[in-house]
Structure formats: structure tokens, C-alpha cells
Amino acid sequence: MCPKVLTFLLVASIQIYTETYGDDFTVMSILKDYWENTPRNWVGADPCGGKWEGISCNNSRVISMALAGVGLIGQLSGDIPSLSELEDLDLSYNTGLKGSLPPSIVNLKKLRRLKLVGCGFTGPIPESIGSLELLESLDLGLNRFTGKIPPSIGNLSKLVVLDLFNNLLEGSIPVSSGTTSGLDMLVKAQHFHLGRNRFSGTIPNELFRSDMILIHVLLHDNNLTGSIPSTLGLVKSLEAVRFEGNSLTGPVPSNLNNLTNVTTLILSNNKLTGPVPNLTGMAYLNYLDLSNNSFDASELPSSLFNLQALTTLVMENTGLEGLIPPALFDIPSLQTLILRNNKLSGELDIASSSSSKLKVIDMQNNSISFYSETPERRNKGIVILVGNPVCEHAKATENYCTVPQANSSDTGPPEKCVPLHCISDQISSPNCKCSYPFRGVLFFKPPCLESRNSTSYEHLEEESLMRSFKLHELPVDSVVVSFPKEGLFGYLESNLSVFPSDRNHFNTITISEIGFVLTLQTYESSDTLGPTYFKGDPYPYSAGEPTVPDKLSRTGSLIGAVAGGASFLLLLLLAGVYAYRQKKRRERPSEQENHFAYLDLKNSDSFPRLKGASCFSFDEIAKCTNNFSEANHIGTGGYGMASLSLFSCPALVYRGMLPTGQLIAIKRCRQGSVQGGPEFNAEIEVLSRVHHKNVVNLVGFCFERGEQILIYEFARNGNLRDSLSGLSGVWLDWMRRLEVALGAARGLAYLHELVKPRIIHRDVKSANILLDECLNAKVADFGLSRPMDNSELILATTQVKGTAGYIDPEYQKSLILTEKSDVYGFGVVLLELVTGRKPFERGRFLAAEVRSSMDREKDVFNHHELLDPNIGLDTKPKGLDKIVDLAMKCVQENGSDRPTMGGVVKEIENILHLAGLNPDAESEATSARFDEASQDDIPPSLREEEISLS
Question: Which of 60, 77, 101, 539 could form a disulfide with 69 if both were Cys (CB 3.0 to 4.6 A apart)?
């Protein structure tokens, strides 16, 4: 094993006073710093012993993270997979969580529930997700995931819930074939929530089997074609079937009549033909919608009259004709009947109806010639006959010959109590208790809105929700549902507030359970409403309001001071033991070369200060690379893969794979070269404490056997220089180049403005900007970086370091290094994005050449000899002139004339706005363009599973 650095020793000493296991403690500490808006009681250094909100432990190991709706901002950190005992991960309703789902998520081998509903995640779902053998719930709905459903999901033999609703997923629905897995293998699954994506092709017959226990099959609002598979009728456990909003054709299979447990069947907005299906076997069916299909013209089938549980029947524009049978109105549970846009004729006779529950009868645009309205019928509900001949009669009344407007002005029943005047942002519940409600939007698909009034709608739904929450034994005092407004996709939207019963706030576990109940669409909705789904708002009150009395606070401070003093003495003792052991080691003869002779062992500041990076043994690294085989050799360079770095420790770069399956890039200083020691130390120290989506992640390092080895996350699409030159095969259009520029600028601005101490990169160039699988830019190579002191000026050594073409001329002359030196290098990168040229070629500097050319002609579009034709010059790319102006500001001779990197970020964001792109969703935009582009439009190397760095 490699020797522990002093920082690790200090961390270990802290563990003496904490209950949390060492690795879990480290990961949770990193997450606390990495994410914004973590719960307010995440204080102290002990997640388990300190009972951090949302964190559950067992035997000092973190087993659950329930942080739904707390307002987290950031990305799904690659450190989470190190929580090897984690069983539950719920980060739902944190819209500030973005980026991709890291492939390393599959390292969580004990994970049972993965819930990321309603966040901002993008990119593909990792194919390796199928290796999480214990997974029971995979909830990724309401995100922006792209690509295809990984067939490997079929390997999840314990999966109960598969929720991929409302993403940008495409392609066919995978089923097993030979050695390939598919969703048909999920025989224990109860929920297939695949609606509102971009799936195409047919619904495979093989998808359904008689040994399945599915209760929900939701494939609505996709691009599916072909017929409804007859194998659907084999799944006797089904309760909800939704295929609406596709292009399905052919007749409805007759064996659907075998699905005796179905309560909801929606086949509307397809191209179905044949007879109206006979569904008499569906004894529990209460919601049926067959609208907007091309069924054979016929009278209302008598089989419908036998559906005794039916509450809602919608058959708009289905070719119905003939007389309206009175028996239709004798269905005992029927409340809503919508038969608009058909050819029904004759008399509407509901006076003798035995049903007392009918609230809405909407038969607009038919051929009904007579209707006798009675006061009793008028009081029971609404009849709408607009567009029928009956409304042309002189005796017709506006009661049934106008479309009623939704009534949202009702004040509802009298208050049960006197509402309280609550402090802070607490709200008085319907039961007059001050508390913090969990809020969100309830989306539902009702048969119509015109019939609703606020009193009936709100209270029916509130009662239904309360029944469901009590069924799941959730501590809910009451709910408030607002009158709905029209939204997208034919849904209506109601604001929902859920109030706690046992205290003034919910904890994160209860928030997770409430969201789970609503997201699964399993709660018993009111009889007049259709299928629903829910999207929660951030809930920052999970830890309650911190109220510590002054006396108690002072006592806590005293205890903390005593404990802190004791800890400090212990640390000194441990540091002394550590120094003594190190001295003994140095005195012993060693077979290995002391390649860290440059470290001042008497000065702890000379050790790399590490945060989140792992120390690997040489044998582990050799195994990852097949003993550094030639097949895994992918390039050369200095640390950070900088092929033109000027310091004197060249490195060989290898691709490897950790036992967890994570791809890594390994940089090994050539044996016998130790002159790069300080740079090696600098890069470890810098990268181990920077965490940003636009900065490359350091996975680990190795100190053994005279080796200097750094291990990075692997960037599948190589570096920006190789993309611009065509070496990597990755094609960047103009909009993607703008996004890459913004990402790199954000990474540098983070180093300059947010890291403590702030960092000057000192080798900004296109070869040090890596591109991940979604073409997100990541700043790399910190071997030459330097921390900034308070004066923000650093006196350089006698040797100016950097790469020809990018070096700040002011820095070369004065030997004074500032953050404006990075700005100069970034300006050159912008010019590379515009021209596609190298920064120094044939003895000429790119910056000087562009400046000279622009001095002669200000209009950038007149410089065709300089512009890269790959950006599409025929259409005058939006923002090209402004990017050139920004680049020229960045490469000004005097640093004081250049903008800051923060200013550069704002400028590029403005340019992206003008170009029609939202800079706050650049990764989503990139993924969406991949989604819309055909495979023929993408270079072959971009379609390969792995792309080498060079």
C-alpha cells in the first residue's frame, strides 16, 4: 500500500470522534462542499452521529440519501458511488441538479431504489445500469435523458418500478433476443411508465408475457406505430393501459376483454380501425377514452351498458351514428359522458334515467333534434348540445345551447376554524395550523374543464388525496388543490399544497414518500378526474427552523471548544507519531528511488493537500492498463496531456478501466524523469480540491516504485485541438463551438473567482480543454498552475512557462503572472474556434495575424481566408463577429485592457442568447441536437462507444 499523506492522517484522526465510517465520511464531506443548498442541519463533521437531514446510517455506514425537493444545485458527483453500502438514493425534485448520469453509478452494488424524478439530468442512461442487480425502483421521469433505453435494464430481475416518463428517449422498445436483454424479462415489474418520449417503431409482441404482474403500462404520447399487440391480453394483472397520442393502427385485439382488473383504458388519438371493442369483461373499468380514432361507423355498442363501474366515457370523433339508446343513462356509476363530434341523432331522453350521478353530458356537434329539459335535470348537472339541430328551435335555452365557462369564483364551504396569522413563511392549513407545506403542480387529464366549478373540483380531489395519504400512513394534516388552468399536451394544471400533521415541517423521507405516491399515479383520484402526475417544488424546510436558545448555544460553544482543544492535542500527538515513523523510514535502506526528494518533509505544506482523490498502488494501475500495454497507449504529453508543455517531465498516456467499470486516463511520467516533481505535486493538490462540471476530475494518483502517475476521468471525445484539426473525428458546428467556449470559460472563471485560494491555470490552450461524451468542455492540465495571493500578482521564476502561441506577452516581459495571463490564452482558444488554425504555425502567431487582418477590414465576414469553413459560412453564423471582438479584447497587449474571465462568461452568455440558445441549458441543447440529428449526419467516430484521446 502507498504511504498515507498527512491530510489522510488528519481525516483518520477525526474519525475517532465520529460515528461515520471513514470513506463515507470523506464522500459526505465532499458532497457538502460540492452541492449548493444542502440541508441546514448539515453541520459538524459526523453525518451519521450528527443525524444529517436525509441521511440514514446503519453500523456507521450511509445506507440512504433522501433529499427530494431540498433545492440542491450541482451535478451527480462521481464521489457518490464510493458509498458502497448505499441502498436508497432519492434526489427527486431538485431542478438545480443537472448534467449526466455518471456510468460509475453502477458501482453502487447494493442500491435498491434510484429516484431522480423532476431534476435537470441530460445525456444517455448508462448501458451498464443493468448491472445493479438489487435495483427495485428506477425512477428517472421528468428529466431530459436522451438516447435509447439500455436493453441491459432487462437484467434487473428485482425491478418493480421502471419510470422513464417525460424524457427525450428515442428508438424502439427493447425486447430480448438471443444474448440481448430486454424489458420483457422484467417479470416482477409492476410499472412501465414510458409515456411522453420519442419512442418509434411498433410495440413488440414479445414485450408482454403471461407470467408478468404489471399493473401499469403507460406508452402514451410517443411516435409508436403498428397495431396493439394481442399479447397485452395475457397480462391479467393490468389496471391501467394508456396508448393515446401515438399512430397505432388496426383493430383493438379482442382478448383485451380478458383484462378484468383494468380500471383505466385510454386509446385516444391514434388511427385505430375496426369495430368499437367489446369490453364487457372489464368489470372494474371506470375511465374509458376511445376518442379520435377511425372505428367502423356504428351505433353505440350495447356492450358498454354492462360496464357497471364506468364513471367516465369519452368517445369523441369515433364515427358513432344512429339513435341514442336510453339504456346508456342507466349505467349506475356514470358521471361524465362525452360523445362530441359524432353523428348521433334523434331524441336525447334522460328524464327517466335511473342514474343520479350524471354530472356532465357533452354531445356537441351531433344531429340531436329534441331534448326536454327539466328543472330536476338542470340541478343535477350540465348538458351541452351546441352544434345540434335542437339548438335551432325557438324554444331552445342557453342552458344547454351554450358552452358553460369554468367557474373558479366559488369561495367553497365555510372555514372550519379561524385561520392563524403565521410567522415567517409558514402558512395556515385548512385546519388552521401554521406549518410549511410541500408544494408542487398536479397535472391531470380530465374529460373536460367546462363543467367544473372550483368547489366541486377542489374538494373532490382533496378528499381523494387525503384518502391516499392515509392509506400509505403518511403524516399529512390536510391538502389544498387550486382550480386548474390549461397547460400542455391536453393536461390541466393545479397547484397542490400538502400540510404536515405531526410538526410544522416534513422531513426529507416523508417528502420522498409523498412524491413517490403522486409520481406513480396510483393514488385514488376523484371519480370525475383522469390520470395524473406530479412535479414537486423545492422544499427548503426539511430541517426546520434552527432555534437555539442563547444559553444552550453558549453551553454548546463551550463544549465545542473543549472538544476542539482535545482534538487538537490528539492531532499533534498523531502528527508526531507520523513524523517519527517517516524519519525511521528515511533512515532505512530502500530499494526504491526517493522520487519525492523535492518535498520538504519538515514542512507539511510541501505535501499535496488532498480532497476526494484516491491513492492507488502501482500494481492496481498496472492491472487497469494490462501492464501498460501498447494497445492501451493513447498519447504522450506532460501532466494534463499537454503535448507541448515546456517543463521537463514527459508523460505517457494510457487508457484503463477500474474494477468498477469506470474508464480512466492514466498519465505516467517516463521512468528516470523526476524533474517534473513540483508540477506533479501542484497538479495533485489543485485537482483534488476543485469540483466543477467544467474542470477535469482527478480520480487518483500513485507514489510507488519511483513512479509519478496521475489518474483522471476519461474524456471520450478527446481534446478541442484534435476536434478542430479533424484528428479525433468529432465534428463541431458553430453552436457547439459556442457551447464549448462557454463551458471552458466557466471552468476558468471558477478557478479565478471561487476556489480558495484562487488559481491561475498558466497553460490555457485548446489541447487542455477536453470534451466528454456530451461534448461538455472540461479544463485540464494543472501542472503549471499557481495559487493567487491577495495581491493577485505572482512573480514568475526566471523561466517563463507555457505553450508557444498562448503565452501572455506582458507576462513574458515583466515576469509578473496574473489571472489576465489565462484570459490571453483563452482569447487565442476563441480564435482557434473561429479559424480552425493552430496558435503558432510557420513562424506566425495566430493572434497577431488576426489582429493585422482586422485592422485592414473590420467586417469579420470578409475574411474568408481566415475563417474555418466547417462552421458553415453560407448562413453567416450568429454571434461570429461578437466572438471575434471578444477574442481580440482577450489578447490585448496590456493585461489591464483585457476582461476578467467572469466578464468573458457573461459576454458569451449574451452571444448565445442572441444566437437563440439558452446558456443555462447548454448541455440540454447539445443533447437535443444529438437527439434530432440522424446518425448519417454524425461522424463515425462520434457514434463509437469509445474514442481515444490523443
Answer: 539
d(CA 341, CA 318): 8
Last residue of a domain, one of 536, 555, 588: 536
Q: Identity (one letter) of the amino acid at 772?
A: D
Tell whether 397 and 498 lie within a shared domain. Answer: no
Does residue 81 form part of some domain? no
Cβ–Cβ under 8 Å, residues 116 and 143: yes
Alpha carbon distance 118, 97 (integer Å): 9
- Block residue for cell numbers 462568461: 905
699 and 725 share one domain: no
Reduced to 3 states, what is the DSSP secondary structure of residue 636?
strand
Q: Does the annotation place 838 within a ligand binding site?
A: no
Q: What predicted TM-score, i.e. pTM, was given to this entire model?
A: 0.57
- 700 within 8 A of 615, measured Cβ to Cβ: yes
Which residues in the chain show pLDDT less than 70?
1-19, 352-356, 376-380, 406-416, 418-420, 424, 444-460, 486-491, 520-532, 543-612, 636-650, 670-683, 685-687, 783-800, 873-874, 919-950
d(CA 921, CA 225): 32
CA dist 226 and 215 (Å) reads 23
Report the alpha-carbon distance of residue 159 to residue 917 in Å, rounded: 38
Identity at 110, one-letter amino acid code: K
Distance of alpha carbon 573 from alpha carbon 582, whole angstroms: 14
**Is residue 812 domain-shared with residue 903, that is, in the same domain?**
yes
With 0-12 / 13-18 / 19 or more C-beta atoms within 10 angstroms meaning exposed / middle / buried, residue 614 is middle
Spatial distance between the Cα atoms of 352 and 369, rounded to a whole number of angstroms: 18
Cell of 701: 494518483
Tell me if 92 sits within 8 A of 115, measured CB to CB.
Answer: yes
The reply to whether 514 and 639 lie within a common domain is no
pLDDT digits (tens, 9 = 90+) for 93-114: 999 999 999 888 888 999 999 9
Count other C-beta atoms under 10 Å from residue 721's C-beta.
21
Same-domain check for residues 673 and 752: no
Residue 143 placed within a domain:
no
Tell me which residues are annotated as active site: 763
CA dist., res. 641 & res. 756, Å (int): 25
The string of pLDDT tens digits covering residues 289-300 is 999 999 998 889
Identify the three-state secondary structure at position 240. Answer: strand
Extract the C-alpha cell encoding 645: 508543455
Which of 180, 187, 191, 136 has its CA nearest to residue 158? 136
As a whole number of angstroms, the distance between CA 78 and CA 691 comes to 10
Tell me which of 491, 507, 536 is where a domain ends: 536
Residues 729 and 700 occupy one common structural domain: no
Euclidean distance between CA atoms 732 and 738, whole angstroms? 10
The H-or-E segment that residue 735 falls in is: helix 734-753
Same domain, 887 and 904: yes
Cell of 631: 494497445
Cα separation, 745 vs 739, in Å, equals 10
Which CATH number do you get for residue 301? 3.80.10.10
Dump the DSSP string for 715-733.
-TT-BHHHHHHTSS-----
Give every CB contact of residue 74 below 8 A, 6+ residues apart in sequence.
Answer: 34, 35, 36, 96, 97, 98
Please give the grid coordinates belonging to residue 893. 497587449
* Number of residues that this document lists for the chain: 950
**Cα→Cα distances 119→193, 280, 512, 739, Å:** 17, 42, 14, 21
Say if residue 397 is in the same domain as residue 445: no
Using CA atoms, how far apart are residues 810 and 817, in angstroms rounded to an integer?
9
SS3 546: coil
Which neighbouring-strand residues pair with 443? 493, 533
CA distance 92 to 510: 13
Cα–Cα distance for residue pair 384/380, rounded to 1 Å: 13
Strand partners, 147: 169
Q: Looking at the domain assignment, is residue 556 inside a domain?
A: no
What is the domain extent for residue 472? Answer: 427-536
Strand extents, DSSP E, 453-563: 476-481, 485-486, 492-500, 532-536
* Residue 546, in any domain of the structure: no
